[in-house]
Amino acid sequence: MMRNIFFPLFCLLSVHLMAQDELYPPAIEISDPTLSKFLTELTLAVGKKDKDFILSHMDPNVLSSFGGNGGIDEFKEYWDFEKEHTTFWDELENILLIGGAKYEDGSGSYSIPYTFSDWPNEFDAFEHYLILGTHVNVRSAPSAENSKVLGQLSYRIVKLNQSPQDNSESESQWFNISTIDGKLTGYVHGKYLVSPVGYRMVLTKSTKGWVISSFVAGD
């Protein structure tokens, strides 16, 4: 079920690196009203699972994977788009909730989320994650029960120490992480972690307005 989304809280966002190992939430900063309008409409389309809106605002050569040739038919097949169980809506919602970077140069291209477009080069994108949230608990074990809170982190880039662990009781994923300075190591629930090479969307300004030109993950 679609979570409540308030567009001004997450969109169009500039990243401020306050310290070497911290990536703070971006501030709303976008100069093109057509992009703001499109992202608002896109957010509403996600809430309604409006397939017609998505398909009518898609580049004919949209890229869905790095191993494919692109195109709307390939997109439909890749995402099982016509089926009820498609995960496309969840992935797009997550991207919109994270938010994008600032846009003011009129380049005609916009990437979202900012964890992809503005990720600091000094942190390997496959070995680091962003903790998305404030006062996120770092625990002594991969469980919210019977584990000690070792500390809390807010919008911090952290190093991933191992693959996610399945919690048999909650069926959730936990990650073992460390802060860049190595002063805190523990487990963080996966819902608070964002990979810079996760799904991202590139929008392109065409003659008919903004369209989705790619929706991919990986490198």
Automatic annotation (TrEMBL):
<dbReference type="Pfam" id="PF08239">
    <property type="entry name" value="SH3_3"/>
</dbReference>
<feature type="domain" description="SH3b">
    <location>
        <begin position="135"/>
        <end position="193"/>
    </location>
</feature>
<dbReference type="InterPro" id="IPR003646">
    <property type="entry name" value="SH3-like_bac-type"/>
</dbReference>
<protein>
    <submittedName>
        <fullName>SH3 domain-containing protein</fullName>
    </submittedName>
</protein>
<feature type="signal peptide">
    <location>
        <begin position="1"/>
        <end position="19"/>
    </location>
</feature>
<keyword id="KW-0732">Signal</keyword>
